[in-house]
Amino acid sequence: MIAGHFGFAALVKSRERSTPLWMLMLASVWLDVVFVPLFLAGIETLQPMQGRSGYGAAVIHADYTHSIVGMLALSLLLALVCWSRWGSRSATVVGLVAVSHWALDLIVHHADMAVLPGNLGNLPRLGFGLWDYPMLAAALEALLVLLGAGFYRRAAREVSIRANRRPQWATAVSVLIATCGLFVLYLDVSSR
Predict the structure, then answer these.
(1) What is the pLDDT of residues 166-178, one digit of tens each?
(2) How far apart are alpha carbons 50 and 123 in whole angstroms?
(3) Whose CB has fewer CB within 10 Å in the chain, the N or C terminal residue?
(4) Distance between CA atoms of 96 and 131, rounded to whole angstroms?
C-alpha cells in the first residue's frame, strides 16, 4: 500500500497548501518508517504466508507501530515535531495523514494489526484482508495514486496561474507522482 499512501498524501496536499508535500509524504508512511528499525532489530516481524508470494503475502507483526495505541502515539509525536515548524494547522494535518496510514492498512491487511502495543491483552487483531484479492487491492491503490496526482495537478496549476507563472511544472510533478506510484504498485503486483 506504499503507493496508495503517497497518493493519499498528494490528495491532501491539493487542499492543504501550507504544509510541504515532502512532509505529507513522510507522514503518510511514518508508521512504516518507524517499523523498519524495529523490524531490523527483530522487535516487529513478517511471517510469509504458506503458498503465497508478492503483494500481501505476509502476516505483519507490527505490534508497536501499527497497533491502534502505537499509531496514535507515533502520529502525535510527528504532529508535535511539525507544530514548532509550521504551526497547529499543519501539525494537525500531518498527524491526521499519519493516522490515515493505519486506516488504509486496516482495509488491506490480514487480521494482523494489534489494538494495544505488543498485543497486550491478546485482543483480537484487526484487518479486513483486501490483500486476499490482489487485483482489487491494486485497483484501490492505483485509484489513490491517480486521484492524488490529478487533484495535486489541478491545485498546483491554480497556484501557478494566480502567481502569473507557467503551470507546466504542475503537470510534470503530477505525472512524476503518478508514474512513480504506479511503478511501485506494478512492482508489488508483479512480484506475486
Answers:
(1) 656 666 666 666 6
(2) 24
(3) C
(4) 24
**The three three-digit cell numbers of residue 33, written as one number:** 518508517
CB contact at 8 A, 52 and 133: no
Cα-based torsion angle of the residue sequence 23, 106, 68, 120 in order, rounded to the nearest 10 degrees = -140
What count of other Cβ atoms lies within 10 Å of the Cβ of residue 84? 8
pLDDT given at position 52: 75
Between CA 57 and CA 144 the distance in angstroms is 21
Note whether 152 and 173 are within 8 A (CB).
Answer: yes
DSSP output for 133-169: SHHHHHHHHHHHHHHHHHHHHHHHHHHHHHTT--THH
Q: What is the rounded distance in angstroms from the CA atom of residue 7 to the CA atom of residue 148?
A: 5
Mean pLDDT for all residues in the chain:
86
Give the Cα separation of 173 and 42 in Å (integer).
37
What residues in the chain have per-residue pLDDT under 70?
54-55, 165-192
Q: Return the C-alpha cell found at 165.
A: 507563472
The length of the chain, given as a count of residues: 192
C-alpha distances out from residue 75 to 84, 146, 157, 172, 187, Å: 15, 25, 30, 31, 28
* Domain ranges, ordered by start, for the chain: 2-190
What is the Cα–Cα distance from 99 to 28, expressed in whole angstroms? 8
156 and 170 Cβ atoms separated by less than 8 Å: yes
